[in-house]
Write a structure and sequence with these properties.
Layout: H1 4-18, E1 22-30, E2 37-47, E3 50-59, E4 63-68, H2 70-83, E5 85-92, E6 96-101, E7 108-113, H3 123-129, H4 139-143, H5 158-174, E8 184-189, H6 195-207, E9 212-218, H7 221-233, E10 239-243, E11 256-263, H8 265-276, E12 281-287, H9 290-295, H10 303-306, H11 309-330, E13 333-339, E14 350-356, H12 363-376, H13 383-390
Helix pairs in contact: 5-6, 8-13, 11-12
The protein binds S-adenosylmethionine.
């Protein structure tokens, strides 16, 4: 349990990281003066797996470096203070925050002073430059419980906030840079509590200053009502939510059709609706790929692998989403399947982005390929294929 002062310090770390203002943190003043560990210097690093804090442990005879995620770092810092050190200083672009313990009563005190370091140009600069939504005075972030009234990200909401930013980064790179980003008509199917729907609207409207219309489709009425109320409160005139199922939704003109974590076959319904409405982009982050798992009846040599539940489950994910990508290709889309956000934040991490291609697909070859794969795994039907066939979107 952190004391009030420690909690303030912990929040300062979080906010400075989120805003790209974290420069350095130094843990010093040993409790035990004979200890080998002199001090710990913590700096931000961007590695392949994402953002980390790099801990340099400065011992009498050597230095050791280890990288940790933000949450782990927080625990480590407070453990080191409890066990080994009396002082920690956080240097940010705006201030220096010092937390120190008195030897007499072991109670922490906080002191804030003027900044002494200029921010490093590289990492911090990039992170700040890419801040896509404003935290302060942001109505929807507060209403959805991501930030406090002061515009600070809540302790348990950092993963959600990172997911939002990663999502906006993907949309920016894969869609906005390829279009003017203006006047886009966007649908978000299975919008749920609306985190990602609000984020995209906010980013397009307030950061890019683009006029956009976004509609969330969601069958849970209470979520639709709440989202519409928040949208009104935030004065997001062109963001609305409608109650209903994806398959029955009335889609006329659409540029971008999105379905994020719409469970199981709801993703197929969304892709089908996007293809049918001739969307320029279809974005899906599928989850719970149950339909194909139930269908799989492997009788060839792969059978010995599929007897392991976890391997069958992973194979079902590959088949479900791989076949979705091929069905999109058969319908004239270029597709990309990639990891949307690292597994440490959420296991639901695959994303399919499909863009309508100017080139005609070799439909027969793709459909033959789909057929071969289905045979290999004893799959009778893929739900998306069924929807497309029944509605004669693909004519075999
Ligand atoms: C796991 S939540 C994801 C919410 C949001 N897209 C996100 O990624 O944060 C899935 C939402 O889709 C809704 N949903 C699932 N199937 C649906 C369908 N067929 N039609 C409309 N909404 C659906 C559920 O009610 C739920 O709110």
């Amino acid at each position: 349990m952190l004391t009030n002062q420690e909690h303030i310090f912990s929040e300062k770390i979080n906010t400075s990281v989120e805003n790209g203002e974290f420069i350095k943190l130094i843990i010093s003043n040993k409790r035990n003066k004979t200890s080998d560990l002199n001090k710990i210097i913590v700096s931000p690093v961007e590695i392949k797996k994402g953002f980390r804090l790099s801990f340099l442990y400065n011992y009498k005879t050597q230095d050791i470096t280890k990288n940790y995620k933000l949450e782990e770092s927080q625990n480590l810092i407070f453990n080191e203070l409890k066990e080994n050190f009396l002082n920690v200083e956080l240097f940010t672009a705006n201030e220096v925050i010092r937390l120190f313990f008195s030897l007499k009563n072991n109670k922490p005190k906080i002191k804030i002073s003027e900044p002494t370091f200029k921010p490093a140009v590289n990492l911090n600069h990039d992170r700040k430059k890419h801040k896509r939504i404003e935290l302060k005075h942001n109505i929807w972030l507060k209403e959805l419980g991501i930030t406090t009234s002061e515009g600070v990200i809540k302790k348990d909401m950092h993963d959600k906030y990172r997911q939002i930013n990663k999502y906006l980064e993907v949309i920016e790179n894969m869609i906005i840079k390829k279009t003017s980003g203006k006047n886009l008509r966007i649908y978000d199917a299975g919008s749920g509590k609306g985190y990602l729907t609000f984020a995209l609207y906010d980013y397009l409207k307030n950061n890019l200053k683009n006029e956009t219309r976004i509609t969330g489709i969601e069958f849970r009425e209470e979520l639709v009502d709440t989202c519409n109320k928040i949208s009104e409160k935030a004065k997001f005139e062109n963001l609305n939510f409608v109650q209903g199922t994806i398959i029955d939704s009335n889609i006329k003109k659409v540029d971008v059709f999105i379905a994020l974590h719409a469970c199981d076959t709801a993703t197929d319904e969304a892709i089908y609706k996007g293809i049918k409405a001739n969307a320029q982009f279809i974005v899906a982050a599928p989850c719970c790929q149950k339909q194909i798992r139930k269908e799989m009846n492997v009788t060839n040599a792969m059978h010995s692998l599929m007897k392991h539940g976890i391997l069958k489950e992973r194979q079902a994910v590959i088949l479900t989403d791989g076949l979705r990508a091929l069905l999109l290709e058969a319908n004239g889309y270029k597709t990309k399947v990639f990891e949307f956000i690292s597994t440490e934040h959420t296991p639901k991490n695959i994303m399919i982005v499909a863009e309508k291609s100017k080139n005609k697909p070799d439909k027969d070859a793709v459909l033959k390929n789909i057929d071969e794969i289905k045979k290999m795994f004893g799959i009778e039907f893929h739900y998306l294929e069924k929807l497309l066939n029944e509605n004669r979107i693909i004519l075999p």
